[in-house]
Amino acid sequence: MSLLNIFDIAGSGMSAQSLRLNTTSSNLANAENASSSAEQTYRARHPVFAAVMGALNGGSGLEQNASRGVQVLGIVESTTPVQSRYEPGNPQADANGYIYLPNINMVEEMANMISASRSYQSNVEVANTSKQLLLKTLTLGQ
Amino acid sequence: MPITLDGAFGVHEQALGLYAHRAEILATNLANADTPNYRARDIDFRAALASAQAASDHTSVAVTHANHIQPGTGGGDEYTLLYRNPPQTSLDGNTVDTQVEHAEFAQNALRYSASLTFLNGKIKGLMGAIRGE
Question: How far is residue A34 from each of residues A25, A43, A95, A109, B109, measured CA to CA in Å?
Answer without folding.
Answer: 17, 11, 15, 19, 52
